[in-house]
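Step 1: inspect the first sequence and its tokens.
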Amino acid sequence: MKVTQGQNYDSSFEQVLHKRSDLHILRKLWHISTGSLCLFIFLRSGDPQIFWAHAIMVMALAGFAVDFFRKKYRKMNSFVIKIMGPLMRRSEREGMTGLPFYALGCSLALYFYERDIAILSIMFLVFSDPISSFFGVLYGKDKILPNKSLQGAVAGFFTCYLISLFYTMNTATIGTHILTFSIISGIIGSTSELISAFNVDDNLTIPVLSGLGMTLLNHFIVVFA
């Protein structure tokens, strides 16, 4: 079948549009802005950490309830899509959304980890997840796992590393141990994001596994006393 120049242009133009839509820019901005706002409120509130763990867990359970009922009631699903549609992936329109997993991951981090490590693990989720996805979609040529690329993993590592470095520089005594802690934390954070390739939501794996990894790391390289 002969393909005309116009058909080639249309096809490539559609591919470019599809590639841009895969970036989900609005979703990433929402992810970063809402997470940053919640972190800011948490840090400024002065309320006990356990209070916020409970409050965010309630949000997670409410999100799971909404997802459950909208799958059963088409009108409810249509209403949710009408409001949140621009922020949803195609798969989320008929299935589970990432929001309750996002809240659940943050809540578990606040429940189980000490304050500084909980904050770091949530910052990994807020910033590393969308940044690694962005670079993975744009430049991810070398696949290392299903839907995961070397380029995205490297972007995730540097994001987690820099977050750890700047945070510890402001909360711990300056020394070479901070650099070592930050490098290993970067590896832990990027690895926790890669695990989502095995059909586990990265909104859950990043804060929970990062927090666990940094808790163990802090026993050997003490940054947070």
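Step 2: inspect the second sequence and its tokens, then contrast the two.
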Amino acid sequence: MPDKLHHERLYRGTDKLAGLADVNVVVCGAGALGSNIVDGLSRQGFHQLRVIDNDRVEEHNVSTQVYGEGDVGALKVDALRNKVFRAVSVELQTESKRLDDRNAKRLLRKAGLVIDAFDNSASRQAVQTACRVEGLPCLHAGMYEDYGEVVWDPAYRVPQDVGEDLCDYPLARNLAMLTATVACETTVRHLLHGADESWSITLRDLAIRPLER
């Protein structure tokens, strides 16, 4: 009888897929990228997922994130934990905290791999610094307007924040979905094949290209 990972198992191979279940992946951010990355990884055989985010769901999040109107006002990590468990019976570990340079090392400890999907420079910098000090593999995912990128440290450069309101910038749902999907596939390839691939994604020309280091 086919199980919930049947198609993924046929594509990846049963033995390889089994190894993903034990990797402790910490996803930093539960917004447009983080929520979709967690949803994607949980449906690909990852069981040890920890999510760090201190925001609440707002109405403008509904178009690009996994949340619905009924989640507005809830903590993102709580809403995400409930959705993932209902979907695939995976229990997320969550931290409803703002990650900064004072707590980054503690929050990221014991991670097998870190995915930075934050939307602000200070938190991204704190993640990058802690991962470098602790020797943790870190994949950064970000986007703005037409452009998205998925970049392994140490090649990643933390961008400056654009404008005062981090939520008030152009963002298409399809770019968020494309970038999250590339981040998921890049994570899987790294763990199964040791590949450290970085990518740029542009929506207007619908292109996904290797990012030169």
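Step 3: confirm your contrast with the notes below.
The chain has seven helices and eight strands. The helical segments are 6-12, 14-20, 34-42, 76-88, 104-108, 121-134, 173-193.
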